[in-house]
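Lab notebook, bench 4. Still working through the backlog of constructs that have no structural model yet. Next entry is a single chain of 131 residues. Request: give me the structure tokens for it.
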Amino acid sequence: MLAGKRAIRVGDVLLKELADLLMRRVRDPRVTGVTLTGIRVSNDLKHAKVYFSLIGDEQAIMEVQEGLESAKGFIKREIGQRMELKYVPDIVFRHDPSLATGERMEKLFQNMKAGRSSEWDKQEDPNGEGS
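Model written out:
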């Protein structure tokens, strides 16, 4: 059996359970609008890094981080009840900037496209005369 294969399967289930808990059971207003983007579980299943994303400034990200940290005990208890694991993994929440990076890149592409299309129009008709 491949090392880590079980960790990947447990991580997938754990991520789904975490998302369900955040949507339905965690009442902290600081965690609204957060998206769980990934998880890494150690091969011994004792540690899990959960990656989250949020569109917003640094202040909003810090508030979400604090909300997730304050709900960690509740989340671990619920995971222990929902999943049949010998050990409930120690959960660490980390911000994943890939969503914000993707949004920033999309804006750059749109700006480039808008700039090139106007340059292209000028190149096609250098005199500015209509067809």
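Notes after review: Residues 29 and 37 are 19 Å apart (CA to CA). The first strand starts at residue 35 and ends at 41. Flag for follow-up if needed.
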